[in-house]
Structures are given as structure tokens and as C-alpha cells.
Amino acid sequence: MASTPLMKQYNEIKKDYEDSILFFRLGDFYEMFFEDAVKASKELGLTLTSRNKEKDANVPLAGVPYHSASSYITKLVSKGYKVAICEQVEDPKSAKGIVKREVVKVVTPGTVVDVDSLDSKSNNYLLSIREADGKIGIAYIDITTGEFKVTEIEKEKDYSKLFNELNKIEPKEILLLDSFYEDVREQIDDYVQKNQASVSIVGKTRDGNKFLMDYFGVISLESYGIKDKKAVIGAAAMALDYAQTMQLENELTVEKIEFLNTSNYAEINSITRKNLELTKNQREKTVYGSLLWVLDRCKTSMGTRLLKRYINNPLLNVKEIEKRQKDVQYFIDNILIREDLKEKLDNVYDLERLLGKIIFGNENGKDLLALKNTLKSSIEIMNILKETNFFEEINVKKLYDVYVLIDESIDEDAPFTVREGGMIKRGYNQELDEIHQIMNSGKDFLLKIEQREKEATGIKNMKIKYNKVFGYFIEVTKSNLDLVPETYTRKQTLANAERFITPELKKYEDTIINSKAKISDLEYYLFKEISAQVKDERNILTNLAEKLAYLDVIVSFATIAIENDYVKPEMLENSDILEIVEGRHPVVEKLIGRSDFIANSTKLKEKERFVVLTGPNMSGKSTYMKQVALISIMAQVGSYVPAKEAKLSIVDKYLTRIGASDDILSGQSTFMVEMSEVSNILNNATEKSLIILDEVGRGTSTFDGVSIATAISIYIHNEIKAKTIFATHYHELTDLENKFDDIVNYRIEVNEKDGKVIFLRNIVKGGADKSYGIEVAKLAGLPKEILKESKKILKRLEQKKELIEKTVNVHQLSLFGENLGFDDDEDEKKKEADEKMEVMSDIIDEIEEKDINNITPMEALKFLSELKAKLEEKK
């Protein structure tokens, strides 16, 4: 099948971008053909048409105007597509034959540079993964801010640490080698589906060492702390090379590699991050109701992004934590400075992404004005803090020079477009001012021509006018047409007038048109020249952005500490104490109001490092446990905490098992999911970890559940020795306090008065010996008939249980190992005991069903004889 020259060109370009939707520039439109057109029409709601571009076949076609293409590109990329932008790279007027076209960039989910389409309060990460020497290297880059971080973790069979990092970083696009993708396909596909990310398979890879050294202009990667880290170097090279390849026409914003040693930060796995709702609530997956929601009083997007990284990476180094605490204390103590700074930070724009736009060449006049205002506020902030060392490395004079440059050059009313003029101030450039003078004097010049022509022709009512179609012209009414000289050239005939042009007017029109074009071209040139001067100061501006973001977070910490009555926690080195006096849940108290929240104290120490917490549902067990973990995380982030007093040792891992739900997609039951999560905790916890367990063992039968819960508790106590809070409905677990030195019972205090139950939500020492499920059901609003019947059934079951235990001489506590009267290997005795309990249960059922008010003495004797016979059989 023969192709037209245009389609030949299209097919040649498309074959190099098979995995992308190709936006093919044709005049004022980007056109898509074939399968690309079908996909785009479906995803973007475009009309699918066709053109006869190939002989004997119509080609599917869809297109978008080039001036509004960015919104369409953003929509496709947000759905996980790659979009290749193919531009006309020569002027169609001077082209011989087909206009030359080239792909100038490929937009992927991780390489979006249109910052207006991104969430300003979240990073847009491109992440790569490489494996080498039993290690996994991770590199992630946000090309809109220049942030480029790398880390290294141990390779594990289940890749749990890798997915913990992915959940923490939340990349939009993940780069993998095909061989590694095969190893993690199921897990990575599940992650991508649940987190709206995409995977890109990379075929060829560069020599990482040489590529990175050449890119950053260094002779060794030692300065970045990654020398000889093969997996990290491979991942870093993969990410940077991919970003560079996708942004063919743009310079990247990346200036350095920052190596993050995971051993410097507390580990929070994905399950714990979700359970504690650190950055998102579980239901709507929004910030509202999360820890981030409480802590974020930042004035800038940069501050919020940094705060999110802090929450995901609690510090392990006490000195670093205390440095942040000291900075927070400064702004608590200096109220006038704090309030003044908040006002100044309100006028600080997203400097990281503004700088990114300038480096990419996507900036407009408004962006430079935003930068100017940011610099003005920054200089004022630096002046306010001149007695501190917050900005000691920043050269104020250089910042002022950039401010003056923009202030003197960019017009305050600069438009969003950069090709139509109106950006440059008068007085900045002499040549530009002269062209403007010609333009501005045009009105007087036209009036002179009009007056002269009126006198020369005697046509007193002639007018010189202008419109976009005909340009400048002389309009003469029909009654004066006989006075029009031969030198006039007719331009247009109207009902009551004729329009003419003269050589002089034509010459003036050409001058004006040329002047407009000259102004647009010269202004664009000057604008890019100014941007280039700003770009030369990218290092100091990047440094300023980092310090402003940190300042914003610290001021936010100080603000919430005062507003919410938080205290500075004392951080303990070489200690296992976790002591919180009158602690509160930071989120819950914000939602329900401080006055309605019941504070509770916690003391985990030697001899009391394992708490068995009992109490009914809805009484506050989960809230209490979560608040302990959240207070510890807040402290290690550098924030003050919701308590009257707190002394906290460093926690290296936060491990939780809270709630239960079937994993429908993988076909795993509640119990299987529960046991998998507990297994992960037991395999990863250390003596310095904090373990939170809520209702473990409820996914199976009561006896099994008690047995498993007990065994887990004993293992943690004996082998791991971690600080642990275990909330349970199994009151039998409270017996552990009498058997193990470091286990202590706590319960939710309940007040029973006049047959009513009130959950006081106070945590007190001691174990609960009673369940309040029916009272909880009452609070939930179940019908009275159901509650009444439940109480009857409960009473019967309790009596039945008591009778069985007396008869068989066994109690559920026996499942802990001692009260049954036989050893674990005496299976026969166990079997006999189980059978006896079963018979007793059947006998009790028969007695309950018998109507003893309507039975004769003979029938009663017969019934009693039958029951006795059944008992005899099992002796």
C-alpha cells in the first residue's frame, strides 16, 4: 500500500515511539493517527474522524489545537499514557517539500514539567529500581523541583522493604529492567493499580559511573556517598538518563545526588502508615483527618512537601531531633517574630517549581513577577532573622541583584503569553522604547494626514479608520465621491460610503505592523535574556528554597504547639522508657474538640514493657494505642506532642496490626491476612521497636484465637522484648501478668450504674473480667427486642460454659498450657476432654429444650436415665 509523503514521515517517526501516543504537529493542530487516534478519542472525548491518507484506506484521525494541547496531554499522562510531542522544526514558508518534524520531548507520568497540572503539595517522582550484589538501589527524581535522592536496601525474598519505600515515596512512574520486573510482576502490578502509578520497562542502560560523573562534572561519586554502591549507581543513572531522554529539548533541574541512608530513619511499613493514617485518611484517601492534616500549617507548597517527607522519615538521631526542637522553641518564645514570619511566608511562592519552570524554559512574565515577590519577602525574612543562623550561607546581595533585575525589567501587568509583547517595562531597553515611540506617535501622525487630506480634497467629513481585516483606510460618504482624487485606491464599498487607501497610509500601516512584530520579537528576546540571568543564580535560589521550606515547617510546628497545647518531649538516648503523661490523639482531639477528649497516660519501661489492654469495643482502645504511636512519631519528626509531659526513647520501627478485612483480590481470608501481617511484625521487630496489636486471633475460633494470641505474646516477651501494646477481647490473656515479669494489664474503665454502662475512656491498671458487647450494640442503636433476646442467650451461654468447666474441670485459661492436667503431647487425654465437653454441651441443649412444666414423673425419670446413659458411654 503506497503512502503519501506526509504519512511516510509520520510512520518513520512513530516507529521510534511505539509505546507513546504521538502528537504530530500539523499547522495549528496536533494530529493523532491510527490506534493513537482511537485511544485519544476514547480517553479525551474527541471526535474520531478519518482522512484518506493511504490509498484505498481511511486513516482514523483525532486532533487538538496546539495552543490548548497541555490540558489534553495532562489528562492522558494522568491516565498512565506516554505522549510524544512532534513539532515542526522548520518554517513551513521556507520548507522545500514536506516540513521537517522531530519529537522534541516525551511526557510521561514521572516527567511532567507542566507544574500547573500537578498537585502543588506533593512531589511528582520518577523512581527507578536496580539490583546488584544482594542489594536493591532506589533512585527518585522530581524534575520540577530538581530533587534527586537515592537509597539502598537489603534484598529480601518478599521484597517487603522495597514496597515500604515505594509506599513512602509514592512515585508516579517506576522504571524497571525487564528481568527484575518478572521477579516482582504480581506485587508491582498490584501496587501500580492501587496507587495510580505506571511502570516503564527500560531496555538498555548506560555505564552508570561514567554517565553520572560526566553529567555532574565530578571525578568521583565519593562526594555523593555512593562510590562502589553498584545498585544505587545503576538506579541513579537509569532515572537520570530516562528523564534526560524524555526531555530532549530541555535542560534538567538536577544539581546533585542526595544519598539517604535508611538506617538514619525509623522504619514505618505500608500497613502501619495506613493504620496510623499518617498522610491520608483510610476512607477517602485525602489529607483530611490524617496526621499531616494536623501538623500542616505551612504557608508554602514547598513547606508541605518537606513536612510530608519528615512524617514519612522519623529521625533516629537524638541530636538532630533536638536541633529541630530548639528551632521550634525559638519561634514559640518569640511570638512577634513568629507572626511576622507567617505574614511574610504568605507572600512566598513555590520557589522550587518556579525555578524549575525557568530552567525548562516554560516560564512567563507572571512567573518572574512571582519570583520577584518571593525574593522581596525572602530578603525581609532574612532581615527579621539576622540574629539567627537560619540563612547564614545565603548571599543576600545576589538575591537583591536578581530582585532588582526583575523589578526594573518586567511589567507588573505582564500577560501569561510570552510572544505577544507587553512584558518589558519602558526604560529598560532603548531600542524597544524607540519602537514604542513610533507606535505611540502614530495617533498624531494619522490626525495630520486626515487634516491635510480634508484640505486638499475639500471632503470635510472624511475619516481615517482601522479594522483587523482591511487595516488603515479613508472612509468617504457617497455624497462626496465626486471629490475623491485619482490617487486614492478603492478598498471596500459600503451602503453609504466607500473606503480607500493611499500610498502614504499604506506606508504608515506597514511601519505599524512591522513595529508590532519588532516589539514582540524584541520583548521575547529580552525576556529570555533576563530569564537566563536568573538561571545563572540557580544554586543560590535552590539553597534559598530549601531553607524557606525548612523555616515554614518549623514555624508550622511552633504554631500548632501553641494552638493545641503541645509540649516538648524529652528524647532519651540508651533507654527503653516510653512515658507519656496525659497523652491525647492529635487527630481525634482536633476532630471532636479538646474539651471532649479524655487524656490518658502511658508508661512502658523495664518490667512493664508489654501491656495487655482489655475493654469493650467503642471504648477507645484503638484510639489510645494509635495515639501512643503517633506521639512517638511526632517527637521523632521534631514536633512537639499532645501531652502534659513526655519522656521518649528512640523507636527504630513502628509495627502495627489493627483491624481486619478480607483481601478479596488475592483470595486471602481475614485470618490469613492477619497472620501474614503478624508474621511480618515478628520477623522484623527489634528490642527498640514499638508494636501495636489490636484483636489478633479473632479471625478464627475462640480456642484457636486465644492460643495464638497467647503464643504471640509470649514470643514477643521472651524473644523480641519490644515495647508492645496488645489490645484484646480475650480476657484470658490477662492471666499472663501473673506468669511473666514484663507483662502488665491495663483496661478501659467502665462505670455500671442502674443497669446502664458508661465507657469512661480512662485507661487504668488491671484487666477487664467482663464483656460489654450488648451494651455496645445498644449504643449503636440495635432494636430493643434484639438486645433483650441477646441478654437471655448470653445468660444461658454463660451458665452452660460454667457447667462444662465444672464438669470437665477445664477453663479457657488452660489453653495457655497449665490447667488441663496433661502435657502437650498427651493427645489421647486432650481428645477425651474435647469429647466430654461435646457430650456435656449436647446434654445441656436437651435439658434447655425439655418443657419440664408439662412432663409426668415417669417421663422425667426416663429422661434422666437417658442422660445418665449418655454420660456413662463417655466415661
Walk me through the structure:
With 875 residues, the chain is of the alpha/beta class. Helix content is 45%, strand content 18%. It has 27 helices and 27 strands. The strands form 5 sheets. It has a 7-stranded mixed β-sheet, sandwiched between helices. A hairpin with a 2-residue loop joins strand 7 (126-132) and strand 8.
Secondary-structure map:
Elements: H1 5-14, E1 21-26, E2 29-33, H2 34-44, E3 49-54, E4 57-65, H3 69-78, E5 83-88, E6 101-107, E7 126-132, E8 135-142, E9 147-154, H4 160-169, E10 173-177, H5 178-195, E11 198-202, H6 208-216, H7 230-246, E12 258-260, E13 267-268, H8 270-275, H9 291-295, H10 301-312, H11 318-333, H12 335-345, H13 351-360, H14 365-384, H15 396-409, H16 430-440, H17 442-457, E14 463-467, E15 471-477, E16 489-493, E17 497-501, H18 503-535, H19 538-563, E18 570-572, E19 578-583, H20 586-592, E20 600-604, E21 610-614, H21 621-637, E22 645-649, E23 653-657, H22 670-684, E24 690-694, H23 702-720, E25 723-728, E26 743-753, E27 756-765, H24 773-780, H25 784-808, H26 827-849, H27 857-873
Parallel strand pairs: 1-5, 7-10, 9-12, 10-11, 13-23, 18-22, 21-25, 21-26, 23-24, 24-25
Antiparallel strand pairs: 1-2, 2-4, 3-4, 5-6, 7-8, 8-9, 14-15, 15-17, 16-17, 19-20, 19-22, 26-27
Helix pairs in contact: 6-7, 10-19, 11-19, 12-14, 12-19, 13-14, 13-19, 14-15, 15-18, 16-18, 24-25, 25-26
